[in-house]
Amino acid sequence: MKSNFLKVVLGIIATAIIVYILKTLKTIFIPLTFAIFLSFIFAPFNRFLIKKKIPISLILLIMVIIILISFTLTGTIVYTSVSSFVTEFPKYEEKMTTLVQDFITKFEIPVEQVKNYLNNKVNWVEIANKLSFTKVISATMGNFIDFFIKLLLTVVFMLFIVLERNKLFHRVEKVITEKDVLHSLNVIAKIEGQVRKYLVNKTFISLATALVSMLFLYAYGIDFVIIAGLFIFILNFIPNIGSIIASAFPMIICFFQFGLSWQLIAVVITLPSIQMTFGNVIEPRIMGTGLNLSPIIILISLIFWYWIWGPVGMILAIPITSALNLIFKEIDSMKIVSAFISGD
User: Fold this and answer.
1) Annotated domain spans of the chain
2) What is the mean pLDDT of the chain?
3) What pLDDT, in 10s, does the model give residues 295-306?
């Protein structure tokens, strides 16, 4: 009895320490997690090239080139979209000002009182300093440098994972039995296969959702179609709430562009319909049984990983939780935890 109680206490302490380390060293662990998942995605391709007796150095070079090309294309699209948004935004500032003025006139709000309140309560000099062009540029450069460092770390981690993968298995074989080796390889293969299936299928589903949404937005004449598509693609990786947040941006743009019009009604109807079709009809057919996670666990994992790693944590929450569930299933003392996590 005392032994079990001690194990529980030690487990809670160990979990708290692990969570603290993950949160404190997120700059390292986020790229490492991405690197692990990338290695899962590239695993079949690597095995194919190894069977063709391609040198490992050449395989690593091919992987790096593929990743750099992908990020370069994505970065170019994002830069072009943001540039067009910055160029066109003054037009929306005028429309927003007009809407505010119409609102004040319609509801007979005393403008002088509003101005006095703003002048008394808001430190405009301080806001101007915070929004200075120099600081905006510095913050933008800082974010770009931070992104570049994390990308570089991800690539480096992935290269080491691929290089050490086979060596690690050989070292493990020397200290455990052949049965345990086969069992461990089976567990790793399950995790790799399930995570890869989720990431690849989710990527194609999110891309298809974004492209179809962009097609309708373009047909309705909505501005910033590419930015809206990027939002939909990225946020679709966040289950349940991601699609709702992604649809908000084009709806807001449509409102400021056309006001209360048929275009706004069409967007409000079309985008949720597309999200529901891909999310509730097409995705379950492609994913099959999926990651077999309880809906409440999905929600809790989203909140937990957001607290640990921010928005990136919400994107990684589901594959991480799925991998942990597969590991817990193979440990006798943790099978009860797996029963709570699983959706069966």
Assistant:
1) 23-175, 199-288, 291-344
2) 75
3) 788 888 888 988
